[in-house]
Amino acid sequence: MSNSSTQSTLKAPIQNAGSTASEPSRRFCVAPMMDWTTPHYRYLARLISRHTLLYTEMVTTGALLHGDTERFLRHDPAEYPLALQLGGSNPEELAQCARLAEQYGFDEVNLNVGCPSDRVQNNMIGACLMGHPQLVAECVAAMMAATTLPVTVKHRIGINGRESWDELCEFIDTVAAAGCRTFIVHARIAILEGLSPKENREIPPLKYDWVYRVKERYPHLEIIINGGIKTLDECEEHLQHTDGVMVGREAYHNPWMLAGVDPRLFGSDTPVSSRHQVLRTMLPYIESELARGVHLGYITRHLLGLFHGCSGGRQFRRYISENAHRRGAGLEVLEHAMSLVPETEESTTLGV
């Protein structure tokens, strides 16, 4: 793990109505996204927002227990608060992984009950588990017995063939009885046959009112809403009805959205750096990753949206895309790319 000047200021949780002094605030979260919420993206996101709760990509129990554990769990302390998302359905294996999450310093461990991919369904991972609420409850109970970290569940409002309001309530009742108090609810059903994961994010209609009803029915539980949320204005509206919001693709493609999170959603008066300053602050981290043997392109692909909407933003993106993969490419690529975006032209809007 590399050192960071931001490390000492980021660990303390920020309490809201749904969190406790020992838990991170979930008022605003960035969703776990495969190939996207890597340590490199998370480091960037943390430089933009102190209070956002970040999630890892989903890691399966098999990968952690039988693969390169260090590689899957490696992160920089500057990323805190940080949650580990697990994929699995074997209570004993999930318990072992929950212990690892605590040993490696994560702030939360989350069980994936929302991913509709065929690849994970075949291993009883993800959204298919909504059809097995008792098994999910057993997994949650085993994880809670193995760690002092908060154990949370991310799920859909249903799956095809099990998409009624009563079945959603049965799922929540069963899992809550095992001790889970935080439910991150993607406001769509998952269709397990015939749709790709991408189509499952777009075709099933969003039913935000169902998530609002969940919070009304279970006021003692922490309910976080997820799915199709793109602006901070939308976040503020959802926060009138739920305890927190989780944003996915928009926070990745337009990371400067996060610049408005701390002042608008947490009331923070800490000055927000410019995009140029954020990237300059990240250069020592990038240099240390290059020294570890990481190729520049693996890092910079997560930075391409930083100057979204700025004059010169397309040139920034193009120059990095064309040059970061070259043999021996280093910080000079980023420094030149930054010079293509006039600092006087940079938008000062803090999120949207």
UniProtKB/TrEMBL annotation:
FMN binds at P32, M33, M34, Q85, K154, H186, N226, G227, G228, G248, R249. The record marks N112, K198, R201, R314, R317 as: Interacts with tRNA. Its EC number is 1.3.1.91. SUPFAM superfamilies: FMN-linked oxidoreductases. Its cofactor is FMN. Residues 1-22 are annotated as: Disordered. Residues 30-336 form the DUS-like FMN-binding domain. InterPro entries: Aldolase_TIM, DUS-like_FMN-bd, DUS_fam, DusA, tRNA_hU_synthase_CS. The active site is at C115. It comes from the Bacteria. Pfam families: Dus. Keywords: Flavoprotein, FMN, NADP, Nucleotide-binding, Oxidoreductase, RNA-binding, tRNA processing, tRNA-binding. It catalyses: 5,6-dihydrouridine(20) in tRNA + NAD(+) = uridine(20) in tRNA + NADH + H(+); 5,6-dihydrouridine(20a) in tRNA + NAD(+) = uridine(20a) in tRNA + NADH + H(+); 5,6-dihydrouridine(20) in tRNA + NADP(+) = uridine(20) in tRNA + NADPH + H(+); 5,6-dihydrouridine(20a) in tRNA + NADP(+) = uridine(20a) in tRNA + NADPH + H(+). GO terms for molecular function: flavin adenine dinucleotide binding; FMN binding; tRNA binding; tRNA-dihydrouridine20 synthase activity; tRNA-dihydrouridine20a synthase activity. The keyword Nucleotide-binding applies. Belongs to the dus family. Belongs to the Dus family. DusA subfamily. PANTHER family: FMN-LINKED OXIDOREDUCTASES SUPERFAMILY PROTEIN. Catalyzes the synthesis of 5,6-dihydrouridine (D), a modified base found in the D-loop of most tRNAs, via the reduction of the C5-C6 double bond in target uridines. Specifically modifies U20 and U20a in tRNAs. This is tRNA-dihydrouridine(20/20a) synthase. It comes from Marinobacter mobilis.
